[in-house]
Design goal:
Blueprint: H1 6-12, E1 19-20, E2 28-29, E3 32-36, E4 46-51, E5 56-57, E6 60-63, E7 66-67, E8 70-77, E9 79-83, E10 89-91, E11 96-99, E12 105-109, E13 115-121, E14 124-125, E15 128-131, H2 137-141
Antiparallel strand pairs: 1-3, 2-5, 3-4, 4-13, 6-15, 7-14, 8-11, 8-13, 9-10, 9-12
Protein name: Cupin domain-containing protein
InterPro entries: HNL-like_cupin, RmlC-like_jellyroll, RmlC_Cupin_sf
């Protein structure tokens, strides 16, 4: 359900906003928040990522020589996911996106809604993340 009202959104965001995502702010257009749900040393890292309306991360690639990639489990609000050279996919609570390693993509909120998803780092070998260029205002603006 779309909402621009932060207080209303926080009632829907059952995993909580957490803190300002300052460590990765340089890779986001707009403000995002990060609430780690597990510790990285557990072997599977999960975090609830919240995006203010219009916020999205840069294009990026999850590299791995075996396994790896990312899962997104959408939990509140509405957002977008897009792979390079493909149409954007609308995200709503309950949507699950499987992102294989080596696929260039981005994800974030719709311009008129807060958005949260749980990001799951898929275990693999020689995993790393490559941050690329921002999603331009022009290409983002074309999305409904």
């Amino acid at each position: 359900m779309k909402t621009t009202n932060k207080e209303e959104f926080e009632k829907q965001n059952v995993f909580g906003m957490g803190n300002a995502n300052t460590a990765y702010a340089q890779y986001f257009s707009g403000e995002s928040f990060l609430n780690p749900l597990t510790k990285p040393e557990t072997g599977v890292f999960l975090a609830n990522v919240t995006f203010e309306p219009g916020c999205r991360n840069n294009w990026h690639i999850h590299h791995a020589t075996k396994g790896g990639g990312q899962l997104l489990v959408c939990t509140a609000g509405e957002g977008w996911y897009q792979e390079e050279e493909k149409e954007a996919v609308s995200l709503v609570p309950g949507t699950v996106i499987t992102i294989p390693a080596e696929v260039k993509h981005w994800h974030g909120a719709k311009k008129d809604s807060w958005f949260s998803h749980i990001a799951v780092e898929v275990p693999g070998e020689n995993c790393s993340n490559e941050w690329c260029e921002p999603v331009s205002d022009e290409e983002y603006g074309k999305l409904g």
